[in-house]
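It would be a great kindness if you could assist me with a short task in structural biology. The full record is reproduced below for your convenience:
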Amino acid sequence: MTTDTIDRTASTSAFGFNEVQAFLFAEARALDDRQWDTWLTFYHADCPFWMPAWDDEDMLTEDPQNEMSLIYYPDKSGIEDRVFRIQTDRSSSTSLPEPRTMHTLSNIEILSQEGGEMKLRFNWLTMTYRYGTTDQHWGTSFYTIDISETKPLIINKKVVLKNDQIHHVIDVYHI
């Protein structure tokens, strides 16, 4: 798999809605196709990956350093470690057999664009199949993307899982 649909040349430097959509679809495709090394290329080295938890008052936690999170990696090295565990069967509970996933994205919105950064949000639904069981997870993601270079990179990722009453461990490919 390549990222040809999202790589830009200097002569095609515009990054509008169609490019955002192609970027998000390509990232989702990398997860669905289990192309972990390709998926990692979407992230900047300093990118935090955070999925806050819902507290007892149905509010999202706000501080990943001091409150419960469902997933929190302060930078790409945490994401790379997770992928290493998936690829080398060193996952504690969720990777084998790797589930089949299908990500569906909707309601893609560009929230702001300033300088070389773009903030966006979108809804997602992931269908997962493993052990003869189909599960579904859904939520909203908030990305900040560095669009100053020819290859856009995610520099901040926050995922809000809306159905957090689940019967197994949630992993990066579920969202």
User: Anything to note?
Assistant: The beta strands are 49-52, 69-73, 100-114, 117-130, 133-146, 153-161. The two ends are 20 Å apart (CA to CA).
